[in-house]
Design a protein that fits this description.
By secondary structure, the chain is mainly alpha-helical. The chain folds into two domains: 2-193 and 250-505, Growth Hormone, Chain: A; 194-249, no CATH class. It has 23 helices and two strands. It has helices at residues 2-16, 18-28, 33-49, 51-61, 63-83, 87-115, 121-149, 154-157, 160-173, 186-192, 195-214, 224-246, 261-291, 296-302, 304-324, 328-344, 354-382, 388-424, 435-445, 449-481, 503-506, 508-521, 543-546; strands at residues 176-178, 497-499. The longest helix is centred in the last third of the chain and has 37 residues, at 388-424. The protein is globular. Residues 1-24 form the signal peptide. The chain crosses the membrane at residues 37-55, 67-92, 98-118, 130-148, 154-174, 195-215, 221-243, 264-285, 297-317, 329-350, 461-484, 504-524.
Amino acid sequence: MATAALLSLMVALDACVIVTSLQAIVVDLELSTYDGFWIGTAYLLANAVLMLFIADLSHVFGRRPCLTISVAFFSLGTVFCCISHSIGLMLVGRSFQGVGGAGIIVLCLLIFTDIVPLRFRPTWYGLVQAAWALGNCVGPILGGVIAQNTTWRWVFYIMFPFCAAGLVLVPWLVNLVSIDPPADAMSERLRKMDWLGNALFIGSATLLLVAISWGGLRYSWSSAGTLVPLSLGAVGTALTMIYESRFATSPFLRRRLFQTASSTATYICGAIQGLVMYGQLYYVPLYFMDVKGFTPIQTGVALFPVMFTLVPASIITGRLVTVSNNYQWSIWVGWTLATVASGLMLLWDADTPSKVWAPTLVLLGLGHGSILNAQNMASHALCAEGDEAIAAAMYAFLRQFGMALGVGVGGSTFQNVMLLKLERDGLASSDAYGGTHAIAAMLSASTDAALQSKILDAYVYGLRGVYGLYVGVSGAAFLMSLFIKSVSLNKGLRSEHRVHATAVGHNSIEFGVSGAAFLMSLFIKSVSLNKGLRSEHRVHATAVGHNSIE
């Protein structure tokens, strides 16, 4: 569990740390704003589209080898990002990190479905989800602090201790074996894999995400540059569904996962939470830095209300779901709070005091924290017996797919709404196409107070468009959540894998803890012990004191 939590924290940090450090990367590498946009999107795109494929591979090669390779991919991508001096190598590195992150997220979840009964899963996996949520909250803070005080490359350097720990701990701690090892040879199992279905799905999902990500940014929504990949992606998705349901001998997409209204609503709500939560964690820091004029450190402090409510809410609701044997209430409460908080964001402007935005962020953290764990477990409870691993992978994929949409759709909404405001105010509409960072640069460069006021108003107007989008989809998710039925979590554990107890396995925890302690000890600096004695007390010399030695 500790290894899964550590790796989940790492991939969440990597996804969000780029938010507040992106401008420093763009300036140092002399990139366009559009290039900078793809530094974040490349990670999310690779992360989303490969998740189900990696889950499918783990049924053939096993969880531990696939998780180890995923950590290795992430580590290699981190190296590329650290040494990059061009957009090409940076995008390669971010894509490698995305591939590794996809495997880490889905395999950590699958391992829990393998070894933890459903009734106790909300409690224990809640801790892993909390680590993931913590990374999402701390990432923008850490990125801003690094960008303000040192080189942006430290955004990636800080990943190396996590990578080293993962490469050491996973082979030793994740000790799973198949309960019924397949009789087929490895070559036969590889031949039976659904290669065509996976290829169709990956290609279609990539085209859809690319089209949605650059629609309204690089190309207008009505241009061939957007419509062609969007249409091809939609057609490819339809062909994938037809192939998987009628022709695939070992389909990786199971139609029975979506046979009930409850399970379908759960998966859709998972995608919406990914879109809303990641989008808000991306655009809220921009509000504080560009509208309120906060420094990155001040922005980090401003995000404390989210961080200190989202993580505890996830842990506490996980425990309460286990005790009550009911997840329905947590989902309903969570979406209610998230929708209300998104609505309150529409009131934010340059003069909004902390007594307004801080309670809003508290509600936001409580809302997403309540949803995060309970909704995930609902997908496990609502599936047919024996399908929990497949259901878990599908839910994880759809949430990541929503996260990839969150930034792209949010960016397109922001620019189009701001474009409308700029045109109304008689300003050059081309200013909107530079993105949030370009507009922020215009604000700091302008000396005309009236022009600054108009640009700032347009910026706030654009952000309100994004928040309005999140209100709408959050409200839709709340209505859909009403269709999620509550079923008992008391299901027997059916899994293809079990923990393999060996001499190495029995000592793995001690090895892992010792290895982690060794890595931490490398940060302990050596200083001289020649320090003077400073104390609040001294020996009191009395008659008794003089004779005390005797």
